[in-house]
Amino acid sequence: MYVLVSVPTATILGGPDLFVAKGSTINLTCLIRYSSDPTAYIFWYHDEKVISYDSGRGGVSVITEKGDITTSLLLIQKATEKDSGKYVCSPSNADVANIRVHVLNGQRPAAMQTGSAGLSNNSGNMVIIMLLGYLYSVLFEKMHLRLPYACAQR
Q1: Mean pLDDT, residues 26-46
Q2: Which residues constitute the domain of residue 39?
Q3: β-bridge mates for residue 3, sequence order
Q4: CA separation (Å) from 19 to 1, 35, 47, 64, 84?
Q5: Which of 5, 14, 74, 133 has the most CB atoms around it within 10 Å of its CB?
């Protein structure tokens, strides 16, 4: 006999590194899956400091949609080099997820010169990325960790 065990997880799409052009919008999407309890809150951090949405910098917003899969989008407009660094999504009911953002001022890292990834501010690409993220989350939810019943009893 087997028992289905779900462990709440947080994932930031596009990691572990995200490269964006200076002046573009940083869009970080955090998915919280497999939670039996609703996510009460999600904090976002930049280089270990809580992100303030009403800071003097401006252009920072968060959109959160709660459901079977909770999605939190952190949007940072007009990216500058100061926006580079480690970002952390910290939900109330799951381990944290992180990503390293690199804001580029015209330079293109070797990993991006192959054409497999690129800088774009195109809204059509953003829609495709969000759709792929949604499809990924739906397919990923179908996969659950199966443990023998005896192990789950311990």
Answers
A1: 94
A2: 2-108+116-141
A3: 147
A4: 46, 30, 16, 23, 9
A5: 74
